[in-house]
Amino acid sequence: MINNILELIKKGSEKEKSGNLEEALDIYILTLQKWDHICKYQDDERVKNVLLSRMEQLVSRAENIKNVIKNKGKDFGSNSHHSSDSLSCQDKDNDNLKYQNDPLYDTIRSCILQESPNVNWDDIIGLDKAKSSLKEAVIIPVKFPELFKGNLKPWKGILLYGPPGTGKTFLAKACATEMRGTFLSISSADLTSKWQGESEKLIKALFDIAREKAPSVIFIDEIDSLCSSRSEQENDATRRIKTEFLVQMDGINVSCNSNNNSLKPVLVLGTTNIPWDIDSGIRRRFERRIYIPLPDEESRVLLIKNGLKFIEHELSNDDILYIANKTDGYSSSDVSVLIKDALFEPIRKCSNSNWFKKVVVYSKDKSENHSNNQKMYWTPCPQPSDIDNYDKNVYRNTSIYEIQNNQLLPPKLTREDIIGVLSRTKSSVSNQDIHKFNEWTNKFGLSGE
């Protein structure tokens, strides 16, 4: 098998030297697929690492040839940036005509976000480093493209990883809201097909459209399901998908400004809950790998206060601090679910009560006519002490379902309500998971706190 691969590389090199770049590219792609198959069954880690290193070199070589073909015969390795820009723009126009009615490209175009998610950076509690990195990668290159010249180029790939429910997708929504460009929101299901060869075409279509619509962000949620580590159970289709993804990510920055050669960036933004399952080649393409950890106590306090906005409650700041302390190890999503569950407690009191008391509530709008700014409600209460002689105009022995619409007044949320919910709520993240994330961060990532 290795001799066969070496022969293919030699044949591809000959085609490349003779100027048959399309044939050379086809041969190199076939070689990469066979090479990937060998790596999968290679037990010797030293040999495997050498093979993977050579494989990545061949991926870069194939990408260079692909760019030469796209630039219509531009000299290999030339530094003539201005001619490259004009050819790139011409190719983009030709691509628009060529793929105008292609159903695969239509599928990808349907993933372009048309409406803003309306999530601002200030809506995200904590995660200052993660927000700063995303602004650096997404907002600044779009707003100040003239700054990125020479060796200073925008980031091409950012991976957000961490336990479920810590705000990774929320950060992506903030990017979509704040950036002035194209945002393509993709899942692995959008890029996989039962038809052979179609998944690779979908990936190519994705990056073609991202270049066409640049500046743009390709957001891939749960990217591990698309680019997992090599294994013996892996089929040829999965290997081809990874190979195409590697080739596309190696050349995702485009430029169509012949005056100052400023880049129109394309950023791949991926999220995952299991970063250790991502293929090592794909991991290397994500130049920034940012850990999104569980919220600290200060962030949990803010999350609780945010969840209690516009809610009638009796909790003091000390009560909120106590609850934040008790939710150590909870994700942001866990805290939100806890508060949501607690907000149902006043309604549950109404539902479980058989007695209701009439109360009069005055509105905050102070008007001259006192009768216009007061309203009558029924609120749950204990059974009257004198059951045989209670005021039937004040008390009602009934159920919640017999009270008229807009006349039910649930009691205020109390500290005891939330503590009761806490007793039956657990964190969705284990200590073993956190230890695993910390180990991976020490090897490959950086903290986003």
What is the structure about, briefly put?
Helix content is 47%, strand content 10%. With 449 residues, the protein is an alpha/beta fold.
Written overview of the protein:
This protein has 449 residues and is of the alpha/beta class. It has three domains: 1-78, Methane Monooxygenase Hydroxylase, Chain G, domain 1 (Up-down Bundle), CATH 1.20.58.80; 80-294 and 439-447, P-loop containing nucleotide triphosphate hydrolases (Rossmann fold, 3-Layer(aba) Sandwich), CATH 3.40.50.300; 296-428, Orthogonal Bundle (Helicase, Ruva Protein, domain 3), CATH 1.10.8. Helix content is 47%, strand content 10%. It is built from 16 helices and nine strands. It has helices spanning 2-17, 21-40, 45-70, 81-98, 103-109, 128-143, 168-178, 198-212, 236-249, 280-285, 297-307, 317-326, 332-343, 345-352, 415-422, 431-444, and strands spanning 157-161, 182-186, 216-220, 266-272, 288-291, 355-362, 374-380, 395-397, 446-447. Strands 2-3-4-1-5-9 form a six-stranded parallel β-sheet, with helices on both faces. A three-stranded antiparallel β-sheet has the order 7-6-8, with no helix packed on it. Strand 2 (182-186), helix 8 and strand 3 form a beta-alpha-beta unit. The longest helix is centred in the first third of the chain and has 26 residues, at 45-70. The model is unreliable at 73-98 and 255-261 (pLDDT under 50).
Radius of gyration: 30 Å
Looking at the overall shape, the CATH architecture of the largest domain is 3-Layer(aba) Sandwich
- The class by helix and strand makeup works out as alpha/beta
What is the percent of helical residues?
40-55%
Low-confidence stretches: 73-98, 255-261
